Amino acid sequence: MQEEQVSIDHLEDQLIDNPDVLTKKEIDNNALDETFQKKLNARAEQIANQRGIAGQSRRSSGERSSSVYGIADYPFFTNKYNLDYDYKDFEDLATELSEWFAHHDYKVINLDALGTNRSASGFSVASIKEELSEGTLDHLDDLLYYTFGAYRTCFTQGDQVRNIQRNCCILIKNDILNPLALCLKSFYEEYLIATNEPSFSDLDEETECAYFKLLTILYFVLTVLLESKDEVDFETAQESLASTDLLSIMVDLIQKWTWRPSQCIRARYLIMITWKLILIEMGDHEEMTEVQDFLLKKYNINRNNNDGRKHRLKCSPLDYFTFREDLLDKFPLCEDNNYSLKESIAKFDSNFLNSDKDADPALDKEYEYFMALNQHSNSMTNLIEHPRPNKEHTVLSQLPAQTVHISTPVPSPPSTPSEFMAGGEKVRRSYQINQAMPFIYPTTEDSKVPAAIEEASEIIKNSVYESYSTKQLWNERRLFMVQERGYVSTYSDEVIEKEMEINEETYSEFPEHRRSIRSLLRVESFYKQNLSRLSSLVSALIAVMKSNRYDYNLNYAEWELNPETSYLHHNLSSESAENKGKVEYLLMQQLEVIRTKEVTLKACSSIVLLLLKWFKLSHIIKYYQLSSMLYDQKYFEVLFEHLNRSINNKDLQELKRDGGENGMNEPFSEYDLIVSQNQLMNPKIELPKFDFFNNCLHQFPSTFRYQFINKTPLSNFPSKIDANNVNQVTINRYNRNYCRILVNLLNIANKVLIKNSIQRIFTINEHKPSEILKVILTNYDNKALSKPALKILKKIVPYQGRKWKSLNMELISKIYLNCQLGLRDTWLSGRDLDNDFNNSVNQEIALRALIQFYNMREYPESMKALGYGISEDDPFNLSM
Predict the structure, then answer these.
(1) How many whole angstroms separate alpha carbon 206 and alpha carbon 226?
(2) What is the per-residue pLDDT for 10?
(3) Could you tell me if 279 and 209 lie in one domain?
(4) Residue 187 and residue 211 in contact, taking contact as beta carbons nearer than 8 Å
(5) If we measure between CA atoms, which residue out of 664, 626, 588 comes closest to residue 754?
(6) In sequence order, which ranges of 406-465 are alpha helices (DSSP H)?
(7) Contact 259, 588 (CB under 8 A)
(8) Do 138 and 43 share a structural domain?
(9) What is the pLDDT of residues 213-239, one digit of tens each?
(10) Per-residue pLDDT band at 340 (split at 50, 70, 90)
(11) Distance CA 4, CA 45 (A)
(12) Which pTM value belongs to this model?
């Protein structure tokens, strides 16, 4: 048995620490857990065969066989539910366009009358563009009909989609975006003037109709622009939108709506256009990858190991500094001048005031400087990234110092009655050594440090990885400390030279990365113009999330809309026949409200997630600013309330499921109700009578069965048993919109839980997130969905009790196998919980102070709009 355990340990070492060439190839082709399971199955089969041979020899010798040796004769398998979902920045063109409209919008734009007064052949793009440039909207209906693909000449939905794509590409090539943006900008200015009047209530019907038509044309053109990047001059369209700064106008209108809600603003449509503008002007996730590669090249950051591998165990500079501090405490006789802190204290002022560019940027020098800051200063920023050596650990510091060498030969004392429990069992005691005290074992004359410690030090030093975000944070922290100590004012560009800045000069340095530089500059200009309005976007997201309550029972609508279960259909009379159409229209309106809220939440969550990612690429403090706004708006509370309503909600469930071969409906179990009938698993609400393309072509399906609740349990989805005896169940029917929403919301939650922010971890722990996340991870295996959930769990695991850890070892194993681990990672144990709790609030305050300092120095005008200003007076008259 011991030999088998050694073999399994050797297998883990082969997979994780020292993989061979064949194992590396298997890991690259498959997931780590699948490779591990495959090798475990092979080892189990080998053990079973060995036992089978032993059993046969025993039986041949007349011994009685045990049931253990027959385990290979009983195959077993486990279920793995794979959610067939691939995250995309936008869906197909038909889906994106149809999600824009609600049914009452067709009356606003007069869809039935479009194209009847003027044929598409007489349409002139040049004349329409000239009229829009002059601000006249006489032929706006003709432009709208042309944008809709001249649907009166189409026969199928595919024909209309192709016409829409072709016509909108023609409009883009004729630079229709600039006059459209100018018209919306003029409306925006008129609206601001009108809202200042006390008697203002709403816009008149004609103005509101023209405004909505402009928004619709703009949305169609932007959506086609995203879909047809290769067919048009995409960079020219980007520059045209950036020159008018239409994105800031949309954000400002959303801000006005949050202050003074009004139906005429049409906030839902502004949110959807804002989403498309961010994707166009800043970029999608593919563009983010290119920008990240550019930043790594600009800041000379190498993510690969010495042997060229990307996937390696790494540690932060802070982890390395902590290790060096523990090494000096443990081995005080270590004679290494590189780690002396005496000279670093004297150099503290000169490093800033003289701006010595020839300073040695080596890691040892950074260690000297960083440790000097944390040990010999009382800066607020020490709490943001504070090294925690063993001597500062609450538990380890309470251990007594070693007085006797533990290897000294001393005879064991005789057992006394006090060492035994009442039942006679001996009391087990654990002896812990204070790791912060000096090492008292004998050493050799050649080395004051054991060879194993020297090897560990070299491994950790070679594994240090400093990202560009860490560089930006430390640079900002140094500037903050100069301002904090009052040596010089860092608010003046003449005193402190800016570092790590992307500007117009970067084009000449990296001409091959013009696209990435343009995206970063657009992010910078957007943040500068809208810093005072960012809270409005956060408020809009929170408001949309709160409005998605799902308090409408979908069973009633499904029963009544389908003829076989409709009460009015089976009880036809003169009165019921007359009211049947009204009842169906009312039910569809209620369902459309649910669908519209879902689409709006998808746009809101996409906006916030894109901004968080782009802000982090631009500057780490921008990312901290937006995440702090989300935290202040109680994002965690709203999120888990929303998830609980979406996963376990009686209005989204039905007690019966579809019959099998016998045709009988069997009741769902309680667990099946939760995991098979929720907003994720229920089909997306489809209303053919309200669909945009059906209303354009007047083609409605004669027979359509409405289904709003999933009747199939997860175990009845298509499945296949693989070579590892795992039943791979493929979930291919679900709500794609809500799956995207769920991915976005979990990613946002993970990004709000920024690194080393303990107060936010305590806040999310109050909502017990592990239960709902466990349901998601266990039943819907998908990389886009599992990755943020596991990252959230990894951050909160150290602050759970022993009982929780013992009951959730499966989650801990998933984190270990699927999340990126560090070389000195304390995510499972080793955290100083007492210190974390005592310093959590002060740490959040220090973070806010650093954010405010950065915004005041870089964007004083935006901060002035929020009520902040820089005082040049000397209140204590301390000037010499």
Answers:
(1) 31
(2) 59
(3) yes
(4) yes
(5) 626
(6) 451-462
(7) no
(8) no
(9) 999 999 999 999 999 888 888 888 888
(10) very low
(11) 12
(12) 0.84
Q: Determine, yes or no, domain membership for 141.
A: yes
- Cα distance between the two ends of the chain: 80
* pLDDT(764) > 50: yes
**What average pLDDT score do residues 466-470 get?**
87
Q: Which residue has the higher pLDDT, 876 or 872?
A: 872
Q: Residues with Cβ < 8 Å from 305, sequence gap 6 or more?
A: 312
617-to-270, 479, 508, 622 alpha-carbon distances in Å: 25, 20, 20, 9
Residue written as token pair 């002007």: 281
Hey, CA dihedral for 53, 57, 60, 65, is it positive or negative?
negative
Residue pair 783/32 in contact (Cβ under 8 Å)? The answer is no
**Chain centre to alpha carbon of residue 81:** 22
Pick the last residue of a domain from 441, 460, 485: 485
The answer to whether residues 730 and 718 touch, using CB atoms and an 8 Å cutoff, is yes
Range of the structural domain that residue 40 is part of:
2-74
Residue 22 lies in a domain: yes
Q: Are strands 726-731 and 78-83 parallel, antiparallel or unpaired?
A: parallel
Question: How confident is the model at residue 307, as a pLDDT?
Answer: 52
> Do 215 and 107 reside in the same domain of the chain?
yes
How many whole angstroms separate alpha carbon 536 and alpha carbon 607? Answer: 12
| Residues 384, 839: Cα–Cα separation, whole Å | 10
Statement to judge: residues 162 and 16 lie in one domain = no
Tell me, yes or no, whether 520 lies in a domain.
no
* Pair 15, 23: CB distance under 8 Å: yes
Structure confidence at residue 621 (pLDDT): 93
Dig out the tokens for 155 from the structure: 């026969």
CA-to-CA distance for 396 and 380, rounded, in angstroms?
A: 25
What is the per-residue pLDDT across 593-636, written as a single tens digit (0 to 9) for each? 999 999 999 999 999 999 999 999 999 999 999 999 999 999 99
The reply to whether 70 and 97 lie within a common domain is: no
Query: Tokens 């305590």 identify what position?
Result: 762
Residues linked to residue 720 through DSSP beta bridges, in sequence order? 728
State the total domains in the chain: 3
Tell me the two tokens of residue 856.
């005041």
**Half-sphere exposure (CA, 13 Å, Cβ side) for 717?**
22
Contact (CB, 8 A) for 567 and 560: yes
Are the C-beta atoms of residues 550 and 557 closer than 8 Å to each other? no
- Partnered with residue 667 across adjacent β-strands are 656
Residue-wise pLDDT tens digits, 3-56: 444 455 555 556 555 566 566 666 665 666 666 667 667 666 666 565 444 444
The token pair at 234 is 């995409």
Of the three residues 74, 102, 136, the one that is the final residue of a domain is 74
What is the b/e burial string over 833-870, where b = at least 16 CB atoms within 10 angstroms of the residue's CB? eebbeebbeebbebbebbbebbbbbbbeebbeeeeeee
Extract the tokens encoding 80. 């793995």
67 and 211 part of one domain: no
In the structure encoding, which two tokens stand for residue 630, read together?
Answer: 């989300």
**Quick one: pLDDT band at residue 582, thresholds 50, 70, 90?**
confident
Same domain, 185 and 146: yes
Residues in the chain: 880
Cβ contact 850:765 at 8 Å: no
340 against 659, higher pLDDT: 659
Q: Give residue-wise pLDDT tens across range 436-454.
A: 777 777 666 667 778 888 8
Name the token pair of 40. 């475990």
For residue 166, being part of any structural domain is answered with yes
d(CA 291, CA 642): 34
242 & 383 share domain: no
